[in-house]
Specification:
196 residues, globular
Amino acid sequence: MNIEEFEKTTSELVSDIQMLSMHWDLLLKLDAEIISSPSKFSKSEHFWSMTFNAHLTSVRIILSRVYDTHEKVLSIKTWLEIVKAELNNLKFMIEPSCNLSELVIQNINNSDPKTNKLVNVLINQLRNNGIAHTNMKKASSGINVFKEWELTQSDYQELITQAQEIINNYIPYILGYKVSYNSLHKDDYKNITNLL
């Protein structure tokens, strides 16, 4: 893979992780707002319930895509496999401060459901039984996969942070920049909540 193809591939993955980060950040901020001012949200419970659910669903879908294990899709794991395969062919913009060969193997393991418990729950339980499609057997038995296997807020945060860090372990050396995951308009939701 040449550097232009690598940069385009990386850009797509970064875009997913940035969108994931923004949905997660907004969900946390709205959650904090509802805790501090519950009366603001009580007048439109259905709207806010749908809003919270939409952000959580977006987080689950994008996170599932980021940690997908299929070898023909763009995910953290397949991107790391490209880095591993091309490591000796890459011309670094900045000389690495650590051994990237060892780091890439460690990061591949951290993004693999076989070796990372959180990724396993995300992919093999939530994605395969409730996010990508609904498991017929579980549905007919009345099993809610999200109650049975739901990740905690800190679990979601750990998976998101790991994805961000993995990307930034390599991009500065290979492409010469570091990715920011903060929204430029991170507090614009207050324009709505201040009106309530």
